[in-house]
Amino acid sequence: MINFYVHQNIDIHTIKIEGISNSSVFQIGSAGIIKPLSQLFNTGGFAQPAPPAGPQPFAPAPIPLIPLTEPTT
After folding, report:
1. What is the pTM of this model?
2. Which of 2, 20, 38, 44 is in Cβ range 3.0-4.6 Å of 24 for a Cys bridge?
């Protein structure tokens, strides 16, 4: 068996992620082996698709947990 030892020094000044979804992996540096795993569960016991999304007149605007700033171009 061969052992590899990786010493890293990573400086990140700017990072832009266009999109992330289920089963996405965002990796910086070496992590050895990443085994993909995707699990979907129907915990509510739903038997048909949800109705199409539409305007929700009484739903309050979500409050972000982290204060966000306007993107710069």
Report:
1. 0.28
2. 20
Residue 5 has a pLDDT of: 76
CA distances from 16 to 12, 20, 26, 72, 73 (A): 11, 11, 11, 12, 12
CA gap 29, 8 in Å, rounded: 7
12 token code pair: 């990140």
36 Cβ partners below 8 Å, 6+ apart?
A: 23, 25
Nearest to 31 by CA among 13, 53, 8: 8
Predicted local confidence at residue 25, as pLDDT: 72
Q: CB of 1 within 8 A of CB of 25?
A: no
Token look-up 């070496």 returns 30
